[in-house]
Amino acid sequence: MKQALTPEQIKEQKPYLDWSLSEREYNYIADKLLGRLPNFTETGLFSAMWSEHCSYKKSKPVLRLFPNKNDRVLQGPGEGAGVVDIDDGQAVVFKAESHNHPSTVEPYQGAATGVGGILRDIFSMGSRPIASLDSLHFGELDDPRMKMKVAGTVKGIGDYGNCMGIPTVAGETTFDSCYSGNLLVNAMSVGLMDQKDIQSGTAAGIGNAVMYVGAKTGRDGIHGATFASADFSDENATQRSAVQVGDPFMEKLLLEACLELIQKHPDWLVGIQDMGAAGIVSSSAEMASEGDAGMELDLDLVPQREPNMSAYEIMLSESQERMLLCVNKGHEDDVKKIFDFYGLEAVTIGRITEGHQYVLHHDGQVVCDIPVASLTDDVLEEASEERKPARITKAEQEDNWQPVITDAGATLEQLLQQATIADKSVFYEQYDSMVRTSTVVGPGSDAGVLRVRGTKKGLAMTTDGNGRFVYLNPKVGGKMALVEAAANIVASGALPLAITDCLNYGDPNDPEIFWELHQSVAGMAEACRVFDTPVISGNVSLYNENNGQAIHPTPMVGMVGLIKDLKHLVQMAPQEAGDLVYLLGQTGDDYAGSELQKMLTGDIAGMVADFDLAHVRAMMQTLLSLMEAGRVASAHDLAEGGLGVALAEMLFKTDLGMNLSLDLTRSQLFSETAGRFVVTVKKEDAAAFEAALGQDAALIGEVTNSHWLQVRLTDGAMNKSVAELERVWKEAIPCQLKSKE
Predict the structure, then answer these.
(1) What's this model's pTM, rounded to 2 decimal places?
(2) Domains identified in the chain and CATH numbers
(3) Which of 301, 317, 359, 669 could form a disulfide with 644 if both were Cys (CB 3.0 to 4.6 A apart)?
(4) According to the model, what pLDDT value does residue 238 have?
């Protein structure tokens, strides 16, 4: 801990520059907002709350492009998580958060506390978490250090979720060298609740109590928000003080205590919020701002697990498993009894005051006295320069790379062994996907599916993002991220409802990177409007770089869909021999950014082709109506590796095969044109199916009992044993993890 400097020393020595506060911002705070020099504690609070991670000062203008309302949205951005109506007085609650820098430094705790934090966002809304998902992007597995980081990340996710008793039902894992110095660990949680129990992070009512509940405060995670708002380098690659330490067993107790309070004693509670990024300061200041109230806190009352903590440390610690409550005056002891039963701290640390001041006491002194709004509402938005990268201008003027495939079967076998495509069960088998017994479809399918107990309904959920497409063509790549998520949801027989996101990018002060952010969000927003899937929550994670090398721009889309009746759930695997196989959507020569291009050239290049969003959405709507009419036997969307990989994936874990005739070349078998599906249909449903989809559906063959994938192409044929394809697919990642090279 640095010795507390005087306000004059702070002005002279400028320690705030190391906390992601600029000199311009410091001067504005001193001259315009306070009319005096801020003290050491106040400067620390401003540094955290004005960081990009908390304030979105650079990304706010871009985020305004997103639609965030429709007839089903009950709560959009601004609270702990978004809430969507799923009929019958029920709601689904979901949000995603990034924990990239902490996971890069300390993979196990970084990933574990990422899961813990997003779960608290869900139950702070009054909802019981029912499922977890993740979106993980690693460097290549030929790096021994990366293997260790992969192992630590996966174990952290599994241990925390398993101890909490919450199933991890879906996700994505990709590998690319651009993530070698900066992992992406995005965690998503989904909850279910009765609409009457919806909570908000509000502190209001003069004299009402501010109560701290949960674990004690330590020195872990101090300045975690600013750590996540700065470029990564070798110098801070071991900054473990900014990484929190989690305790899932305590979080389980905290969850049960909070839900008991919310559901059984709602009249005691005014508001509730997780202590996430920036710890006590963010939760308390944001709650006071939401309630248009003042707040006074005595930091000597904050439960502490380490001696001699300063006000600066107490306020900025990001110790886990803590919540802040605003409780109606007179019910403090009632609330304390609930938390006492669970063995948790529950202490009144302050009160709501008249006016709008944020006042902190510590060791008998006032260590902070500033307007609430100065922390939450007066943040200076930062205009950013934008510049289109020269690589994109050049690609627009050149012909795209075209592959030469001489042996489609050998190419398919090789693609199935690429880490991004290969079987991930070695990872997700560490997660309990069946706990609570509501899981209908677990990891390994297009989307996870859970039943809504006591109803016929189901919830489908997925995470999707492909940084390669966004890197080559940000606007089209942004559209594709949304379409891929929607395709996964529809392939399960579900209606896409809304999305959450994690926007993972490099340093926004680089004009080219900000242009990527702006363009890709514009593409995502356009797709959200076309698909009527508003953005109800999310997270921006910038400065994902290592020693000046940025990741590919990687917006992650987390989507939830509603299955109105689980009898219409559609599986990925074909159901019976003799069923007809259809390819939905047109296939182009789309290889820019594809797995095929990366595998054959070692790099990605070219322009990703645009496509007709409205047409793709209309096709998906028609497909969903056919599913709900019981006319679809199985479905799988086409993604990495194109049609060839999708066909193989459908047949894995079955004893079936396919006999197909395609009006495609060997190369087009691996094209990654967006918005396509493979669907199987019973023969008696074929006429109705073809009539509904028209030219969007091409009959390409039928399901067989042979357990061979037999494909005739315009320039050759492919005959592969499904068992052999499945073997290489399953063995690829375990072999790479064991390799010592």
Answers:
(1) 0.95
(2) 199-377 (3.90.650.10), 390-738 (3.30.1330.10)
(3) 669
(4) 45
